[in-house]
Write a structure and sequence with these properties.
With 155 residues, the chain is of the alpha+beta class. It is built from five helices and eight strands. The protein has one domain.
């Protein structure tokens, strides 16, 4: 598929970067264990103000636990995000699943819209990450080939 085939400025996807200690995350009726490290969660934001979806995931405090990511952000620190216009959540998944930099984490996490198609929407970084800048730089460089525009949001 060519780069131009990915680019549709009407769709938005995002990557939320999280830093976790060894932690158990309660997920509705189940629980999952995350080992210490950095994680990337992907999602879509095809709404009028897509950055509001990302900001919701970055905020701490009392918010209604609605999506898997809400349970994760309660247990871990959301440290930043990249909002990407021009590619959808499915394409973002296809890019990350082929990456050597991250590996799939909790099976079925956050991908109920793609049940049986996507393994997960939560990925763990394969190596120790030196800094948030390293993560942001990696994603910005990787996604620049596919996104019409990338907005970096730090918390």
């Amino acid at each position: 598929m060519t780069e131009s085939a990915y680019k549709n400025s009407r769709c938005f996807s995002y990557v939320v970067i999280l830093s976790c200690s060894d932690v158990s995350v309660g997920l509705n009726l189940s629980e999952a264990f995350l080992s210490m490290g950095h994680y990337a969660y992907i999602g879509s934001a095809n709404i009028k103000r897509p950055y509001l979806r990302v900001l919701r995931h970055l905020m701490k405090g009392s918010k209604k636990l609605k999506w898997h990511i809400d349970y994760l952000t309660k247990a871990c620190n959301s440290v930043g995000a990249l909002l990407c216009s021009g590619i959808d959540e499915n394409t973002l998944y296809e890019i990350l699943i082929k990456s050597d930099y991250v590996k799939p984490s909790i099976k079925g996490f956050g991908c109920s819209d793609y049940k049986g198609i996507h393994e997960t929407h939560l990925f763990k970084f394969n190596k120790d990450v030196e800094s948030l800048n390293e993560i942001i730089s990696y994603f910005a460089l990787m996604l620049s080939k596919y996104c019409v525009e990338i907005e970096i949001i730090l918390s």
